[in-house]
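note to self: dont lose this again. the chain is below, predicted strucutre after it. 153 aa total, dont forget to put it in the shared folder this time
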Amino acid sequence: MRAYILETIYELSKKPYQKWFKKQPSWDISARTLITYPKGSLGFHLGCFLLQHDFSPQPKLENHDVFHVLTSTGISVPEEVAMQYYLLGNGKRSIYLISVIFIGTLLYPDKIKLFKKAYRKGKAAYSFHQLDYKKLLHQPVQTLKTTFLISSL
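---
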């Protein structure tokens, strides 16, 4: 039931958030195109992530899936909340992030240790949340992780 509540809120808020809060243009790239990037690259890993979970890139929300790839975060609801904690620790601030953390913490108080761990890992990494990832799709994912001290969640 907890997961259903958060997933419903996400589905209801996704379109307005894309329209009114996300100003950058859509990448206009498919998962099938991403897997043609060099093996080991961010683009290749992003494409694999999307195909593995039967996702397609969401216009203007592509960075979200990049964060999953870089932090090796799963897609369960508690993991999604933990990833927002990771990004909070890394310095990211948005209405969406704060909302997910607030509601997620209320719904998953039993996961507070996971959330604190994620926050600490985000704080320990160099700031990476604001990068233009479309320009970095050819870069080796391991190089990005090493350069920014991004550890797996």
